[in-house]
Design goal:
The protein is 42% helix and 11% strand. With 534 residues, it is α+β, with helices and mostly antiparallel strands. It has four domains: 69 residues, no CATH class; 66 residues, no CATH class; 245 residues, Nucleotidyltransferase, domain 5; 97 residues, no CATH class. It binds zinc ion.
Length: 534
Amino acid sequence: QIKEDLKHKSKTLPLIRVKQLLILSNFATLWLNGFSIIDASMQIAHQWHEGNGNWFARRVHALARHYQVFEQLPVEKHDSSSNNRSWLHNKSVQNCTREWLTTQSIGKVMPHNLQQSLNSIILPDLGMIPAKPLSICTARRWLIKLGWRRTVVRKGIYMGGHEHSDVVKYRNGIFLPAMEHFEKRMMKYEGPELECVKPPLSAGEKEIVAYFHDESSFHANEETRSLWLRDGEQPLRKKGRGCLIRISDFICEATGRLVVRDSSGEIVKDAWQVIYPGTNGNAWWDSAQLLAQVKAAIAIHNELHPDKQAVWVFDQSSNHAALPPDALRAFDMNKSDGGKQRKQRDMVIPMTNPIAEFRGQPQKMTTFTGEPKGLKTVLEEHGFDVRNLRAKCSPVCPFENNGCCMAWLLSQQDDFANQQSMLEQIIKDAGHECIFLPKFHCELNPIEMYWGWCKHRYREISKPNFSVAKRVALEVLNSCPIEVIRRFINHSWRFMSAYRLGLTGKAAAWAVRKQKQHRSVSQRAMLEIESVLN
Ligand SMILES: [Zn+2]
């Protein structure tokens, strides 16, 4: 019957209907030759369309089903006389658009590919041909109406946590005042010429050098995302992004990267750690490697500036918060002394202890026979009455609790709740300072801009194999001029001052841009930096 229809009506039917009939006749042939319905749909989708044919296959399937039941093509519901309203008001347009969007893999939906599909597939298939093709603005508007949002993903975190109340509280209450305090004792590089300004120090005060830490990865096959090509040219892209080069490094205003150079300018000591995880059995970056790196970095600082104090700035990652093996953990403890429980370190009962008479007293965590103490003993030595309290809740404490059990009560005490991480301990034991950046504030870490600068250059250079990639990465990381690094650092200080002035978000970013006196970095590279920052 399809063939009959085709013969008789091909003259009178509009092109789109003929196309539908042709598809159906192909479909019927395949089906009669033993293809399953789904295979036949897919087969046709591949013939008629390039790329991912899932959506098209579904349309073919739906069309075939309709024809089977009604023995004619579906009647178009669209009334072409009323197209002054948005096409999206049409239910079938809306459904088909939504259906097309859901068949795209996650992260691949873009206004421009929706625009293309609307103009070349979705609307024509519904028998609708707009007077002029839909614009990219329309596609973007439809995406938003249908619930899609442009989202920036960084290290697997959805940005937008910027203004969480605990983040703001930490930023304004702890981080910014502490940094202001440190900045007063720092050497500054100011103005368009980055003139060096020494800090006014009172007697006995040490000058401070700030080191900003971060980790970054370079993939062996990372290449620039936009290319200039002649019509019809196809770039040869390698599959996947290739082996990994992982760097953990520090930057500072004094030397750029934290290195010691000899009289000829050659690097003789370097604080960076470069690893190639996954190749030659190189282990992944972990807390132990970071601690070893920080110890080496402290030694380099002490050699460069024996009379200066260092402030080490880290982000709040789990590696940086790792507690020592003898840390105090209330939930690891048993109710009574002895038995199978970890020995924890001795401490002093904090000055915030609710029962005043015990404040400042030493708290041994083992009994006189050397057995680890249990929850009951430790709490009683803090002065608590725990006779009517159970040891621990099972399986976990209730979400909103207030003194539900001994373990919870002890875990809330200052000596248990606010312990120094191993990282802080190493730094403070060496006579230096350590501070953690507020979460979601990569604009306050200038090394992020340095990574952006390096990555932009790294991507421009072609890297035929991994050993070349390694060499290029290290060369690029060493090629950033110290003036550029100083400007990156000034950029972050400007953000801090903007936040102190009460500016936030876009306003702060605008103020920081306004104050910039020189653009030493190319526009294209700035875009890369912007993409790292935002
Ligand atoms: Zn509890």
